[in-house]
Specification:
The complex is a heterodimer of chains A (about 170) and B (about 170). With about 170 residues, chain A is of the alpha+beta class. Chain A has helices at about 15-20, 30-35, 50-55, 60-70, 105-110, 135-150, and strands at about 75-85, 90-95, 115-120, 130-135, 155-160, 160-165. Chain A has a four-stranded antiparallel β-sheet. In chain A, strand 3 and strand 4 form a beta hairpin. In chain A, helix 3 (about 50-55) crosses helix 4. Chain B folds into two domains: about 20-65; about 85-160, Lrp/AsnC effector binding domain/regulation of amino acid metabolism (RAM) domain (Alpha-Beta Plaits, 2-Layer Sandwich), CATH 3.30.70. Helices cover about 30% and strands about 25% of the residues of chain B. Chain B is elongated, with a radius of gyration of 20 Å. The model of chain B is unreliable at about 1-15 (pLDDT under 50). Classes of the chains: A alpha+beta (about 170), B alpha+beta (about 170). At the A-B interface, helix 1, helix 3, helix 4, strand 1 and strand 2 of A face helix 2, helix 3, strand 1, strand 2 and helix 4 of B. Strand 3 of chain A pairs antiparallel with strand 5 (about 155-165) of chain B.
Chain lengths: ~170, ~170
């Protein structure tokens, strides 16, 4: 982490990121195992926690209380299905090159669109990157045009051509 | 096209048979399953369905790709993976399919997409998201991608995130 890196804030960050950064996360072996091994293949059956307990040689109660604790501490966002990024509709990745002194205004303007589900500030001449998702392509185009009109800035529109995204999660501890 | 993971074309994808009950299940699970011994039965009671029907429908949605995986979803940021770098690469067109597949399969890459160039402003056509516990950690991962791409890469940049301004995971509003 460099000094330039501004703390990340966002509505999805349930725990306080700064508190976590200042206090390295300490995890038990069972916590690490549940975090690492169940990024896919969480059992789809009547009693999934009992099955995990059997796989790991602990009790069902241990599994539930550990996952609950990880969730309470914001280390697990949720336990459940991960849906394909778009069950229906259209989307695109778009970017704006925003002068520094206008960044807050433009970022707020972009984030206000309910069709914008991700909006990141990045270190680049194109410093604002966002994803627009809508029921159809025409709707996506209308949002991009509205953002151009409202901000007075041209949008770099980078729709997906192909995904090489397998989405299996990634190893947290090797 | 063989041996290629399920492609999700953002502009053309349509929903495989998603009915009203499936949508209710998605709405009820996208924020996570209840952490109780029989979570799918609890969900079924909440939705006025039989537990078996919920299990079958979730299995069918996994089969048709609407559900990618079922997981205890880690909050990477809270676990110390605070560095998010969007690496962007200018790959010769003839090689992007094969190289995209290889980059997407790397453990250190969480998302990998082919997107259009916008010359002269934007020469990059391959996007690979890397995560790290530090800038150096992320840079090492980017170096690994650079080695893999070799002579087929004409240039690259890494756009590190400075701030998450908006991030919503919900796909379908209830």
């Amino acid at each position: 982490m460099t000094a330039k890196h501004t703390p990340v804030t966002g509505e999805s960050q349930s725990a306080s990121p700064l508190a976590i950064l200042e206090t390295p996360v300490s995890l038990t072996a069972l916590e690490k195992c549940l975090l690492n091994e169940y990024q896919r293949g969480f059992p789809l059956c009547t009693s999934p926690f009992a099955l995990i307990a059997e796989q790991q040689g602990v009790t069902e109660k241990d599994v539930i209380s550990t996952l609950d604790s990880l969730q309470q501490r914001g280390l697990v966002s949720r336990v459940g299905p991960v849906f394909a990024p778009l069950c229906a509709g259209a989307s695109t990745l778009a970017a704006l090159s925003v002068p520094d002194d206008e960044l807050e205004r433009v970022a707020d303007c972009v984030s206000r669109y309910e069709e914008v589900n991700h909006n990141y500030e990045r270190e680049h001449a194109f410093n604002l990157w966002f994803v627009v998702t809508a029921p159809d392509q025409a709707h996506v185009q209308r949002v991009l045009q509205a953002i151009e009109a409202e901000t007075g800035l041209p949008v770099l529109n980078l729709p997906l051509e192909r995904s090489f995204y397998i989405d299996l999660g990634f190893p947290l501890w090797c | 096209m063989t041996g290629y993971p399920r492609a999700l074309n953002e502009t053309q994808q349509t929903s495989p048979s998603l009915d009203a009950t499936d949508r209710r299940i998605i709405v009820a699970t996208q924020a996570g399953l209840p952490l109780v011994a029989e979570p799918y039965a609890a969900l079924a009671r909440q939705l006025g369905l039989e537990a078996d029907e919920v299990l079958q429908r979730v299995a069918a949605m996994q089969e048709n790709g609407m559900i990618r995986r079922i997981a205890a979803v880690p909050n990477h940021y809270a676990l110390g993976y605070t560095i998010n770098g969007m690496s962007v690469w200018n790959i010769t067109d003839d090689h992007i399919s094969e190289l995209g597949r290889q980059v997407g399969a790397l453990d250190c890459v969480s998302h990998c997409y082919h997107r259009p160039r916008h010359l002269p402003l934007w020469p990059y056509n391959l996007f690979a998201m890397v995560h790290g516990r530090s800038r150096q950690d992320a840079e090492e991962k980017v170096s690994g991608i650079e080695v893999l791409l070799g002579e087929y890469c004409r240039g690259h940049e890494v756009l590190y995130s400075k701030r998450i301004l908006k991030k919503t995971g919900l796909r379908i509003q209830g």
